[in-house]
Design brief:
The structure holds two protein chains of two kinds.
Chain A: H1 2-22, H2 26-46, H3 50-81
Helix pairs in contact in A: 1-2, 2-3
Chain B: H1 2-23, H2 33-45, H3 51-59, H4 61-82, H5 97-119, H6 128-145, H7 153-177, H8 201-224
Helix pairs in contact in B: 3-4, 4-8, 5-6, 6-8, 7-8
Classes of the chains: A mainly alpha, B mainly alpha.
């Protein structure tokens, strides 16, 4: 049962990663990259590595997503100026 | 067209190279020699209930110091790149009432959870890095809700430098009092599983948590201010 769940989550991770590369909308790409991290943290938790899972969930899907969104905002602003 | 074929060839080569990792994989049913040593001797030597913390803070303490330094350099680089202010300050839009009210309730809880995570790093999963990131996300919610409220700049840099300095100082104290650099036995090991146990690990991890939190808040602040 657990193995099946891990395989399903892995497939969703791969699909989300491919979507993040191929999509033209940058905001969706950032959100999709955050989803990859969140699902990876669930897999770490199921493989009984709670320390790594906490790091991945907090940094990968929380902080990195926000930093990317801020950076995107900055790039857009500097594009309007110049 | 040639570029695309090249990409496919490289991908195929990559799959071919990584094929042995799957075909030769044998799941191990017992711990290797090194992990066996950590699992049996770790609780006695270090006294931490969470073995991951024992390895990160004590056995591989120097690596952790290196990680903290890397994070510090990254923060300094971002601060250097983004510190040039644009001069004119636009008036920011007020955040919504839902976000403001939610922040009032959530902000203290998130900060408290972050502090819990790094103080209990030697007992439960988590530790300085995770707790620091949780604190940084708590302050992020504050930055989003109150766009005009600047953070106390002196307090931020003071926390960061003092905690980094104290971390190295405790490590150097281990050279004099205990067996080596960053040895946790400068304080008594205490009772296994209690909050005040495992020697200096709770203090070191709290300092790491404060430093990581302050550095990440600095990054967010620099990215936000334009």
């Amino acid at each position: 049962m657990e193995f099946v769940l891990i395989v399903i989550i892995s497939i969703i991770i791969i699909l989300a990663a491919i979507f993040a590369i191929l999509t033209k909308n940058l905001v969706s790409a950032i959100i999709s990259a955050g989803v990859v991290s969140l699902l990876a943290s669930i897999i770490y938790l199921m493989l009984s590595a709670p320390d790594v899972a906490m790091t991945e969930a907090a940094i990968g899907s929380g902080l990195t997503t926000v930093v990317f969104l801020y950076a995107l905002n900055k790039i857009r602003k500097s594009g309007e100026d110049g | 067209m040639g570029k695309r074929i090249l990409i496919w060839i490289i991908l195929a080569l990559f799959i071919y190279i990584s094929l042995p990792f799957i075909s030769d994989f044998i799941p191990s049913h017992e711990l290797s020699y090194v992990s066996q040593k950590y699992v049996t001797d770790g609780p006695k030597e270090v006294g931490a209930q969470n073995l991951v913390t024992a390895i990160i803070v004590t056995y591989r303490g120097l690596d952790t110091l290196g990680e903290v330094v890397v994070l510090f350099i990254a923060t300094a680089g971002i601060g250097f790149l983004l510190s040039r202010s644009r001069g004119k300050k636009k008036k920011r839009r007020e955040s919504s009432i839902i976000l403001q009210t939610g922040t009032k309730i959530l902000f203290p809880l998130i900060i408290m959870f972050g502090i819990y995570v790094f103080i209990n790093g030697h007992l439960t999963p988590g530790g300085g890095f995770q707790g620091g990131v949780v604190i940084a996300s708590g302050i992020l919610i504050l930055l989003l809700a109150l766009p005009d409220n600047p953070l106390h700049e002196f307090l931020l840099s003071f926390t960061e430098s003092i905690s980094g300095f104290a971390y190295v100082l405790i490590g150097a104290l281990g050279l004099v009092v205990a067996a080596g650099f960053l040895d946790n036995k400068i304080l008594p090991l205490g009772k296994f599983g209690q909050l005040f146990s495992a020697g200096a690990i709770p203090i070191i991890y709290s300092l790491i948590g404060l430093k990581v939190g302050a550095e990440l808040v600095n990054i967010l602040k620099h990215l936000k201010n334009d």
